[in-house]
Amino acid sequence: MKSFSSPAIILRRLDFGDYDVILTLFALERGKISTIAKSAKKSIKRFGGILEIFSVLNVVCSSGKGGSLVVLQEADLISSLSDIRTDFNKTAYACYWSEIVNAWAENDTKQERLYRLLYYVLEQINSGCISAEILSILFQMRFASIAGICPNLIRCSMCQLSVDSLREERISFDFQKGGIVCRKCTGNSGNRLSLSKGTIKQLLWINSGDLEKVGKIRFTCLALDEGLSFLEAFMTYYLGKEMQSLKILRQIRNKKRK
Ligand SMILES: [Zn+2]
Q: How close is the Cα of 159 to the center of ligand 1, in Å?
């Protein structure tokens, strides 16, 4: 890899030995990249203490000797998004989204839409203008579209009847089929997750239109709870593993409810 410069979000930060730091970056121009920031631990001056998780930077990187490890040469702060790191709830959500990106994205593959989506939700959760729960629903729905795994919530996956024409108020979702299945087609078999029609409508709504309109969406408590449980189960199913940060997120939510 030749040297490159790009805006980038820090997805992960790992101390490496006594002096260095290994960073997983999600760069606008290059997608996911692992880099080593030499002497970042030893000398605060070297990078001015800006190499924090979720920070957005302008980076200059070059390939290391032998072409193995990418070396972070320079970094300038675009936005520190520091309010995320001082709030436990915000940190948990931001960790969850970063973990999904890290688990799914391939190294050195540009993902401009995903970069802009992640940047948007991190900026919004940092400012606190939109609730973390709504942002998480937005992130997961739009991530699923970008990743080509968007759940089919528009019509029965088997008989193709549209959701509007279904009489039942609660509709089953079949993970294997990747979509909703009407009562006639499901019969009594299987233990599937079910969603209310209202939740389905709101999930479809959040997945359409400009990101900027999202702040105006009002979710009912039921739709928020159902939407989050459904999307988190959906992500776990499609990514083939449960994100570590999801366990922490659930613990925080359970504590809030008590
Ligand atoms: Zn059907």
A: 4
Give 181 Cα–ligand 1 centroid separation in angstroms: 5
Q: Which domain holds residue 22?
A: 1-80
Number of domains in the chain: 2
27 domain-assigned: yes
Query: What is the spatial distance between Cα 24 and Cα 38, in angstroms, rounded to a whole number?
Result: 14
- The CATH number of the domain holding residue 62 is 2.40.50.140
Instruction: Compute the distance from residue 163 Cα to the ligand 1 centre, in Å.
Output: 10
> How far does residue 179's CA lie from ligand 1's centre (Å)?
11
Q: How far is the CA of 182 from the centre of ligand 1 (A)?
A: 4
The Å distance, Cα 196 to ligand 1 centre, comes to 16
Using the mean position of ligand 1's atoms as its centre, give its distance from the Cα of residue 162 in Å. Answer: 9
CA of 156 to the centre of ligand 1 (A): 5
Q: Left if phi > 0, otherwise alpha if psi is -120 to 50, otherwise beta: which for 196?
A: beta
Burial of 135 per CB tally in 10 Å (0-12, 13-18, 19+): buried
| C-alpha distance from residue 53 to each of 50, 116, 165, 194 (Å) | 9, 17, 46, 36
Give me ligand 1 centre to Cα 209, in Å.
28
Is there a domain that residue 4 lies in?
A: yes
**Residue pLDDT tens, the chain, 258 long:** 678 999 999 999 999 988 999 999 999 999 999 999 998 888 777 888 899 999 999 999 997 666 578 999 999 999 999 999 999 999 999 999 999 999 999 999 999 999 999 999 999 999 999 999 999 999 999 999 999 999 999 999 999 999 999 999 999 999 999 999 999 998 766 557 899 999 999 999 998 878 888 777 888 899 999 999 999 999 999 999 999 999 999 999 888 877
